[in-house]
Write a structure and sequence with these properties.
single chain, 572 residues, alpha/beta, Rossmann fold, 4 domains, 6-stranded mixed β-sheet, 5-stranded parallel β-sheet, 22 helices, 12% strand
Length: 572
């Protein structure tokens, strides 16, 4: 019978998610008990998890000469040992059993990315007829980490759970993935929450919080050294449908909104006249110091930062032109790899900025954003309606943007019952009936009767208050025109910092918890998906509140396109 090795715990004690995941990947690829040349076998999900924190070059440096998907069959490679890093799923277990019954490698070292059910381990042991398995470990890295304080679960159908509370096979898998992903984060940073709260208006958030409480109490793997644990807060995307619909203006968020940022990669193949080596760009804060420093910069400051990057490169280029001796040439050859890397990095960021500038002009994003921000932050019904109808009649505005603006307007002014009139204007603009149904679908998902109150409470809602404060500032300032909006999450973070998180709004999932009014550590998870705008607010909160630390997670990362696509697939 195969036995589980002692359960692994993270050495990382800080709330740095990149460090936590890298810690486990480091252990896998440099495990001294494997020794010699090795292959790394991954599944689809762990391939993405590893690629977010480790480059191919870094893996090769650890004597990993083959990286491939588990289940790929080829000739035997008995000179290699296999390190297997996979999720503990039934599909992966089937592939692993087939592998062990006809082994292609000399030995197998198996690392699961999450808690392994006991019966799965038993079946795996029975399949090891050739006794090629040398160890089995649980390495808790079952999530994709984007920033030090931001992770997601890469769910393709993140809103399915909101369409119906009835348990189907599909919804059951998605529900379990949310729960298991959160548990993996807790295990990877070695934290047991001292209190688990959920959004009172969301039955889905309550169910997830309750299930996590049950698993924490049932599984002894969470018996960490007793210490004050973090607050775990489960929110629902439904309560803030505005944030994913808005144009984003920070670097990381803009790239995702304009071109898509998936697994730290940007597909540039459709960019006009793009060079071949820039058709796919890696944009990772672990591999790019410039991006790590400027990912939360707004567009108004980004151009200046990239200009500075170019100026520094040009100075070094001029220095390299003065090669008058053998000593000069020798020095140049020594610094050439770094110079070449800098050249590629400059080209990458210039290409991204150039393409974003082109798309901003093509889709009139400044013009659209000003109306978006007005709708989100101010109460000027007549003016907003007039401006919306002007844009709906403008042939230069893209269909997707007309629908998006209509949705923002309807969410804000739903009680005025103007949906039919807006649909008529969309029809006059040549927008199909099928696309018009998105208005019904979004209201069915997150209309006024479906979400918690106060999203647009003009007397004291967070958007109203912050919007009015900013509208009173200088209008010519980029930040005060295009980035007035504050996600609903901002008010939650403010309440946490002040120790004023209300029990009635965010009740405890367990009566045995010992709540702390102002927890030093907080993990916020948004079921249904988070956004880069919210990630920026968390980063700002962490920078401005010494002694407090917040991590943000979500089922996926939304931009306006994939948010509406999921609404369409789920509710139509």
């Amino acid at each position: 019978m195969l036995k589980m090795a002692a359960k692994a715990v993270a050495a990382v004690q800080s709330l740095d998610l990149i460090a936590a995941v890298r810690n486990y990947v480091d252990k896998i690829v440099s495990d001294t008990s494997i020794g010699g040349m090795k292959a790394l076998l991954l599944d689809f999900q762990t391939t993405k998890i590893v690629s977010m924190v480790y480059s191919q070059t870094q893996i090769l440096e650890q004597e990993v000469y083959l990286v491939e998907q588990l289940g790929k069959r080829h000739e035997a490679m008995s000179h290699l040992k296999a390190a297997v890093f996979i999720q503990p799923t039934e599909a992966n277990l089937d592939l692993l059993i087939k592998e062990l019954r006809s082994p292609m490698f000399a030995e197998y070292h198996i690392f699961f990315s999450n808690i392994v059910p006991h019966d799965m381990l038993t079946r795996l042991g029975r399949a090891d007829e050739f006794e090629v398995v040398r160890q089995v470990q649980e390495y808790y890295a079952d999530y994709c980490v984007v920033n030090e304080d931001f992770f997601h679960l890469r769910q393709e159908k993140s809103l399915v759970l909101s369409s119906s509370m009835s348990r189907t096979l599909e919804s059951g898998k998605i529900f379990d993935r949310n729960v298991q992903g959160i548990l993996s984060v807790l295990l990877s940073i070695k934290r047991r929450p001292s209190q688990i709260r959920f959004q009172e208006s969301s039955e889905l958030a309550r169910r997830i919080a309750t299930d996590i409480v049950t698993q924490l109490e049932r599984d002894d793997v969470f018996e960490f050294r007793r210490q004050e644990g973090p607050l775990l807060l489960i929110l629902d995307r439904r309560d803030d449908p505005i944030t994913p619909l808005l144009t984003q203006w920070t670097y990381q968020a803009m790239v995702h909104e304009c071109m898509g940022l998936r697994d730290n990669r940007v597909d540039m193949k459709r960019v006009p006249k793009i060079s071949k080596d820039l058709q796919e760009i890696v944009l990772s804060c672990t591999q790019d110091k410039f991006f790590a420093k400027h990912r939360h910069f707004n567009f108004g400051d980004l151009g200046e930062a990239i200009k500075g990057l170019m100026d520094d490169y040009q100075k070094k280029a001029k220095m390299n032109e003065k090669l008058t001796s053998i000593a000069d040439m020798s020095a140049f050859m020594e610094r050439y790899p770094a110079f070449r890397a800098q050249s590629i990095n400059v080209s990458k960021h210039v290409a991204l900025l150039t393409e974003m500038r082109r798309l901003i002009d093509k889709y009139q994003m400044f013009r659209l954003s000003e109306l978006e921000q007005g709708i989100a932050c101010a109460s000027e019904h007549s003016a907003h309606k007039r401006d919306l109808f002007d844009l709906l009649g403008d042939e230069r505005i893209a269909t997707a943007d007309k629908i998006r603006l209509s949705l923002l307007y309807l969410i804000k002014y739903e009680s005025y019952d103007e949906k039919r009139e807006i649909k008529q204007r969309l029809a006059q603009a040549g927008i199909s009936v099928a696309d018009q149904k998105l208005l019904d679908a979004l209201l069915d998902y997150a209309g006024e009767s479906k979400r918690a109150p106060n999203l647009f409470n003009q007397g004291g809602g967070i958007m109203s208050q912050l919007g009015k404060q900013l509208l009173g500032s200088i209008r010519g300032d980029f930040e005060n025109v295009y980035t007035q909006h504050q996600p609903l999450l901002s008010s939650v973070l403010d309440a946490i910092a002040k120790g004023k998180l209300k029990d009635a709004t965010y009740p405890l999932a367990s009566t045995s918890a010992t709540p702390t009014s102002r927890p030093a550590e907080t993990i916020v998870f948004i079921v249904g998906g988070a956004t880069f705008e919210e990630a920026t607010k968390v980063a700002e909160f962490n920078a401005n509140n010494p002694g407090l630390r917040v991590l943000l997670g979500g089922s996926t990362i939304h931009n306006s396109s994939n948010f509406l696509d999921e609404i369409k697939k789920t509710f139509l």
